[in-house]
Amino acid sequence: MKNILLLNVSPRQNGTSYVLLSMCQDYLLKKGHLCEIIHLYPNLNNLIKLREAVDKADTLVLCGPCYINTYPADTIALLEELSLHREILHRQSLYGIIQGGMPYPHTHESGLSLLEMFCKKCNVSYKGGFVMGLGAILNGQPITKLPNSKKMIRQLQIFFDYIDRDEEAPSKVYQVAQIKVPSFIYRIMAVTMNRKIDKDLKSHGIDIKQKSPYLISK
Q1: Could you say which of 2, 82, 102, 196 would form a disulfide bridge with 58 (CB–CB 3.0 to 4.6 Å)?
Q2: Is 58 exposed, middle or buried (0-12, 13-18, 19+ CB in 10 A)?
């Protein structure tokens, strides 16, 4: 029996990342482990509780969305905070789960690379991760809503089994679950998502035709 800490690093406490962690918790509890889900964002202003939980844990499972190729910025701030308290890092196993809107995993894998680099520097044992595409479609709904749900659920259970055994999970576990999308569908998705982004920007009073400040030379 291990003490397994499940960290939800998503700003949303009931979103897709929480759905994945809940599945992981249910699976590992049945295997006889102690499992607790802690949300990062309610603890941002006081990380003492979180640091104490990390210290007590044998295994860490970090799950969150992919924002611009990696986890949210506050996740990086959390890792930096943990690196300042090396006394609580004692070769715990760390697994990462990252989910994003794109259906193919390579867009989100850099988030797992971030965790791997952290582990190499901070006396933590990186044991692999799982990438799930189309997370934005779910919007906190059950995994069964995915078009490739049966394959995804099966591969997630295989991944959870690696956590149960405290073994390194190979990337092929999540690659098998990847949905095969024709190239013309990608183009339709890109147009649809760009329109949604433009609509969201306009709703916040942002002129989408204005020149990017990053392109303005000084």
Answers
A1: 2
A2: middle
By CB atoms closer than 10 A (0-12, 13-18, 19+), residue 211 is: exposed
Interior CA angle at 24 toward 22 and 29, to 5°? 95
Q: Which CATH number fits domain 3-180: 2.60.40.10, 3.40.50.2000, 3.40.50.360, 3.40.190.290?
A: 3.40.50.360
pLDDT in tens, 109-165: 999 999 999 999 999 999 999 999 877 777 778 888 888 889 999 999 999 999 999
19: part of which helix (H) or strand (E)? helix 16-30
Mean pLDDT over the full length of the chain: 90
